[in-house]
Amino acid sequence: MKVIPGLWIADVRTDRGSDVIMLLVSNKMDLANKRQMTTEEGKQHAEELSTMFIKTRAKTGYSMKRLF
Questions:
Q1: Residue 14 lies in a domain
Q2: 53 beta partners
Q3: DSSP string covering the chain
Q4: Of 1, 44, 46, 62, which is least surrounded by CB within 10 A?
Q5: Among 30, 15, 25, CA closest to 51
Q6: Residues 56 and 67: beta-carbon distance below 8 Å
Q7: What is the total count of domains within the chain?
Q8: What's in the keyword line of the UniProt record (predicted)?
Q9: Closest Cα partner for 59 from 28, 34, 36?
Q10: Contact 9, 22 (CB under 8 A)
Q11: Which residues are CB-neighbours of 28 under 8 A, at least 6 positions away?
């Protein structure tokens, strides 16, 4: 299933204001062969939605401190 982000973005910005900080997070960065979306697609979606983009790997803790 490919999730198309953006449908809820307007609701968040309406509720919390246009300067709310949002990140599009790509998890399991080391499992490229199992991804539903490429890194480039993720970056493109983040740019289109005016959000930041970060790749993580929760199992190993990669980029988790940066995320939170």
A1: yes
A2: 24
A3: ----TTTTHHHHHHHH-TT---EEEE--TT-GGG-SS-HHHHHHHHHHTT-EEEE-BTTTTBTHHHH-
A4: 1
A5: 25
A6: yes
A7: 1
A8: GTP-binding, Nucleotide-binding
A9: 28
A10: yes
A11: 34, 35, 57, 58, 59
pLDDT the model gives residue 1: 45
Domain of 18, in residue numbers: 9-67
Residue type for 54, please?
I
pLDDT tens per residue, range 8-66: 788 888 899 888 888 888 777 666 676 677 888 889 988 888 888 988 887 777 777 77
pTM: 0.66
CA angle 36, 26, 38 (to 5 degrees): 40
Q: Establish if 33 belongs to a structural domain.
A: yes
